[in-house]
Design a protein that fits this description.
- Helices cover 32% and strands 16% of the residues.
- The chain has 224 residues and is an alpha+beta fold.
- Strand 4 and strand 5 form a beta hairpin.
- It is globular.
- 27% of the residues are buried.
- It has one domain.
- A 5-stranded antiparallel sheet has the order 4-5-6-7-8. Strands 1-3-2 form a 3-stranded antiparallel sheet.
- It contains 7 helices and 8 strands.
- Helix 1 packs across helix 3 and helix 6 crosses helix 7.
- The model has no long low-confidence stretch (mean pLDDT 93).
- The structure holds iron/sulfur cluster (2 copies).
- The site of one iron/sulfur cluster (SF4) has 13 residues, from helix 2.
- The site of one iron/sulfur cluster has 13 residues, from helix 2.
Amino acid sequence: MKTRILRSPADLTAQDILALYANFDTPITGLDCGEKCAPHNPSGKPFCCDICHAVPAAYQSEWASLQTRTQLWHIWRGDECASPDNRDDLENSLPDGMLFLACLGPQACQRQHRLLSCRQFPFFPYVTSDYRFLGLVYDWEFEKQCWVINNLAQVTPAYRTQFIATYDQIFALFQDEFESYALRSQEMRAHFAAQHRRIPLLHRNGGCHLISPVSERARRVASC
Ligand code: SF4
Ligand code: SF4
C-alpha cells in the first residue's frame, strides 16, 4: 500500500481495506462490552450499534469494497431512527471522501465486515498541538453511555497496539486524516479545559496518562 501514490482514503483498493481490517480485528476488552452497556439503552442495543445514538462514517473506498462482499450495510437515509435530531449537523461534519452508512443492527452484525469506525469506537487518535500522535483518547460525547470509556483499564494491550499501528499507517498515507484528528483533539482540549478536567490518554508507549488540556503536559498515572 505504501508504494503507490494515494491522494485520499477514497483511493484505497478493496485489498487495502481487507488488509486494514485484518490487522485491526482484536476485541477492545476481554469481555463483550455490548452486554455491559445494552441493558442501559431503552432500545436494548449497545449504544455504538444503535443508529439513534451513533451513525457510522465510512471511507468511500470501504463502501465500494463492502458492497461486493456483504448486504450488511446501506447508505444512511436518515429515517432509520424514529427521531433523528441532528441530521444537518451530522452531514455538515462529514469530511470529504466519507459517507454515512447504516447496518442491519447488532443482531445481524458480521464482525469481519465492520467499518474502521466500528473498530475504533469509542476511541480516536490523539494529536498534540505540535503534531504528535500520542495515543488513544475517547469520544467524550459517549462518556455517559459507553462502558469501555468508564473502564479504560479493561482495554487490552493487543487492541491498543493494533489501533496505533492502523493509524500510524493511515497517517503515513494521508495528511488530511492527521489534520482532521489534530482538529478533533483540539476540540477535546477545549471541552476538557472548560470543565477543568484532565484528558485520560492510553499512551502509545503503554500505561495511562492524564493530559492537561491547557499546558498539554502529560503525567503518567497508575490507572485511568
Ligand atoms: S464500545 Fe462502548 S458503547 Fe460500544 S458496545 Fe462497548 S461499551 Fe457499549
Ligand atoms: S457493523 Fe456491527 S459493530 Fe458496526 S455498527 Fe453494525 S452492529 Fe455495530
